[in-house]
Amino acid sequence: MADLIAFPTVSSDSNLEMMVYLANRLSHLGARTDLFHDETGHKANLFATLGPDREGGVVLSGHSDVVPAVAEDWSSDPFEMVEREGRLYGRGACDMKGFIAATLAAAEGLDAAALTRPVHFAFTYDEEVGCIGARALVEELARREVRPATAIIGEPTSMRIVEGHKGCCEYTTHFRGCAGHGSQPERGVNAAEYAAAYVGRLLQLRRDLVARAPEGSPFDPPWSTVNVGRIEGGVAHNVIAAHAHVEWETRPVSAADQAFVKRTMAAYVEEELLPAMRSVWPGADISTQTIGEVEGLEPMTENAARRLVAELTGANGAEVVSFGTEAGLFQKLGLAAVVCGPGSIEQAHKPDEYVSLDQLSACLDMLDRLGGRLAA
Ligand SMILES: [Zn+2]
Questions:
Q1: What pLDDT does residue 14 have?
Q2: What is the pLDDT of residue 144?
Q3: Distance between CA 171 and CA 154 in Å, rounded?
Q4: pTM greater than 0.90 (yes/no)
Q5: Residue 289's pLDDT is what?
Q6: What local confidence, expressed as pLDDT, does residue 129 receive?
Q7: Radius of gyration of the chain (CA)
Q8: Which pLDDT score is estimated for 233?
Q9: Closest among 258, 265, 279 to 195, alpha carbons compared
């Protein structure tokens, strides 16, 4: 864990050194390892497998990147692990280098030859900026013939089982109109006014989403939400606005709602707004830019990963949380997925981030039992 924290893998920077380190450690143990680079070549995902080359088995997933650390706010160097009073401090201690280190430690204790089902290690880049690496990794896995059965995403949940979280999708919608004098509004195309209409449709959609709340939804609030976070446009009182943009997000409780929101807004643009704008000026346009889409993790009645982790940890029941993770991407691929990892989300993204030794040993216990299970 000290080695991992010493790699300053802030999302904006390269994670390659850490990934090569992890690949070396795992291949020493006999794992088959694959590094998948992004298009810049400065970042990579690592996928490694111990045990037989066959269907099933478990994916242990963690992101390699960390949020930035402002050294002055810390009691010690954020990229040098320090132990104080039963806690290990450092950027990424709970989010998520403690978990990654625990998977390596557990791998060292495994008798790989005895495994009847594989254990996979999925270490990704750019989680903190929209699960970009995991998306690429999941696409890579989709191309493979053999597929793991379950995934444990070791984000900090204090070792409780998390079976659901909403998605989080952020968009910026840009409006291009045609400027003109404010005294003759009909001669121009007012981007700010069309943006206002668009916001009106979003608010109507927000009400429609309330009615779509799934029966027994565990979320708070139980339905998918829409929020308009920022509106900007135009230049002055007396000028027809040529440009405007709206920054908005939706937090869907299901993939179906996510698709519903996108479909509804796209149809509104294509069928109503654009024809109206272009009837005045053909150069008018509306485009929606995706800032980030984190898939939700939908709670399932039947979830093999929940059952497995409950047996391994002795935890009773499962909960939902308000933060997003890579778990939804694995679920979308067809795996049963839960989030369960050492440390608390309360300590993530803060100065003096830590994970307690107690939490790490609970995680190691879970992983050791998992090893035994996969050898049975
Ligand atoms: Zn995280």
A1: 96
A2: 87
A3: 28
A4: no
A5: 96
A6: 82
A7: 24
A8: 97
A9: 265
Contact call for residues 135 and 326 (beta carbons, < 8 A)? no
pLDDT given at position 131: 85
Taking the centre of ligand 1 as the mean of its atom positions, its distance from the CA of residue 1, in whole angstroms, is 16
CA–CA separation, 367 and 106 (whole Å) = 6
Cβ proximity of 340 and 165 under 8 Å: no
Distance 62 CA to ligand 1 centre (A): 8
By C-alpha distance, which of 172, 171, 123, 122 is closest to 147?
A: 122
Q: 324 by DSSP, 3-state: which?
A: coil
Q: Residue 335 and residue 169: Cα distance in Å, rounded?
A: 22
Tell how far the Cα of 95 is from the centroid of ligand 1, in angstroms: 5
> How many angstroms separate the CA atoms of 179 and 19, rounded?
51
Element holding 48 (H helix, E strand): strand 44-50
Calculate how far, in angstroms, residue 61's C-alpha sits from the geometric centre of ligand 1.
11
Report the residue count for the chain.
376
Distance 106 CA to ligand 1 centre (A): 20
Asked if residue 277 has a cis previous peptide bond (ω within 30° of 0), the answer is: no
The amino acid occupying position 123 is F
Report, as ranges of residue numbers, the positions in the chain whose pLDDT lies below 70: none
Rounded to whole angstroms, the Cα distance separating 212 from 94 reads 36
Distance CA 222, CA 77 (A): 41
Tell me what pLDDT residue 132 has: 87
Give the residue from 3, 107, 124 showing the smallest Cα distance to 58. Answer: 107
Q: Is 316 left (phi over 0), alpha (psi -120 to 50) or beta?
A: beta
Active-site residue set:
65, 127
364 Cα to the center of ligand 1, angstroms: 19
Three-point CA angle 43, 44, 48, nearest 5°: 160
Q: Do 6 and 78 contact (CB within 8 A), yes or no?
A: no
Q: 128: CA distance to ligand 1 center in Å?
A: 7
- Maximal C-alpha separation, the chain: 81
| Ligand 1 center to 348 CA (angstroms) | 8
What are the tens digits of pLDDT across the range 329-347?
Answer: 999 999 999 999 999 999 9
